[in-house]
Prior knowledge:
The complex is a heterodimer. By secondary structure, chain A is of the alpha/beta class. Chain A contains five helices and five strands; from the N terminus they run αβαββαβααβ. The longest helix of chain A is centred in the N-terminal third of the chain and has 24 residues, at about 1-25. Chain B is built from 13 helices and eleven strands. In chain B, strands 4-3-6-1-2-5 form a six-stranded antiparallel β-sheet. A five-stranded parallel β-sheet of chain B has the order 9-8-7-10-11, sandwiched between helices. In chain B, α2 packs antiparallel against α3. The two termini of chain B are about 25 Å apart. The interface of A and B includes residues 11, 15 and 16 of A.
Amino acid sequence: MKQVGFAAFVAFWSCVGTLLMLFWLVPVTPSDAAEEKPGYTLAEVAKHNTTEDCWMVIESRVYDFSDYIPKHPAPAIVMANWCGNEATEGMKTKGYGNNHSQMAWDMMARYQIGVLKED
Amino acid sequence: MIPSKLKTFTLTLAILPGLLALLFITAADFSSAGALLNVLGRLTGIWGMALLLVAAILCCRVPGFDQPFGGLTKLWKLHHQLGATGFLMILTHPLLLAFAAAEISMDAAVYTLFSSQSAVLWGWVALIALMIFMAPTFAFFGKPDYQRWKWMHNLSGVTVVFALVHTLMLSRTLPGHWGNAVWGLLALMALGAIGYRWIFSRWRGRLPYKVTEVTHPANNVVELTLQPLRAHLKYQPGQFVYLTPFCRELESGNNEEHPYTLSSSPCEPTLRMAIKALGDGSRALQNLAINTEVSVEGPYGRFFDPKASANQAELWIAGGIGITPFLARLRHHARLNEDVNVHLIYCVQDEARLVFGDELQKLSNTISGLSFTPHFFYQQGPLNSYFVKQHCPDFNHREVYICGPVPLIDSSRRILTDAGVPLSRITTEEFVLS
């Protein structure tokens, strides 16, 4: 067991080191420029306020989370209240002061459909 | 409860939180390779945490708690298995979560590991602390000194608290009240065990004794006689205690506890223990002064079955200082004038190392039903089946007890099982405790 423990210890730091090395070496792919996306007003977003048709505004970007809601770790009701609304606070606090992980923030890019425009 | 059932119960308790979490896993958790890695990452975190908590519960060392597990040695083995498996799972947990995030982007993978979120920071504090405190256990940097290992290993209990903070802040696989109930219950039990070990046992669990006699039955072996200063310990023959001497003049081991088997009969008004110089602490005890105050914590171990009848047919194989539990039982039978049905084979290198040889010879003359056969390695080579059969022809119908160094235990077990003795009839006690 001692050898297994030592091997696991070495493997752990090797994996962490490899991840950091890749992060440092692999160039960042520029994401789609937000400016190229269509613009939506808050009034338009507000029409998509159900869990089946759920748009949200987070940091001036518009997202369609309709397909994501069934995959969200928390029950659908947690996200339902933010559908059709400005939801930056929800994203940053989860409702109890805890920000979402970087993974969650990065994953949102998949669901962006546009940017917020003035009414 | 028999030991195997209790072991199953303990393992069930350790894997229960993970099994409960499986109930809350949805189809979305299998929607992609990343989602699957993510759920596996969360499950290894839950199982790792639960295994570490149950391992912490088992280390409480409350006298008597080890009995249903078959003795403290077997309880320690279970503690080691759970702790080591938990440690491996905890190492896997952040890596799987980072690999899962790599499906989104490399940034997400790295930021999953190195987030500034306080919950993640607590996770790192717990993990690094666990690595530091477990390093001597896994001998990452060579074999450590016993006392340093023990001190570091005790500190690993602190990591449980850090890991709990991390778990309670991030836990989402076990939702709401389920998470609080599962972690709250296990944490309460673990903290209770650690609290007993660190606080209660130090003040109330140890009995004060005084050294009244020091004899040397052989070179490098001392037998201490201890007189109780308060209450006298209640124990069974063959059990062991943790002895802590309080003597600043000792070359080594002052105020340090070490386990030693009692060699006295429970009927005696004093405690006796035979100690061979195997390390710095036990070597220093060879010259312990009369009237030195010591503390005794225990008793632990369950070498002999306390429910077995006195005249059960038994074969005892002892190696070196492993004679101690057998000596304790023979002294006890002699005091009670009980007949036995025992054959004792005592394996030593040569006559000079036949510790308590004269007393054993006398006991075999006074206790009816006791046969005593010394085995000398320098004359007869390693113990073999021919020797056992020659001196104890009906050995494969007897309950067998073996105590001594690991090579003797292994070879004796092989001789016996090759002759058809089932493992369930063989009880062993290694003289290596950690």
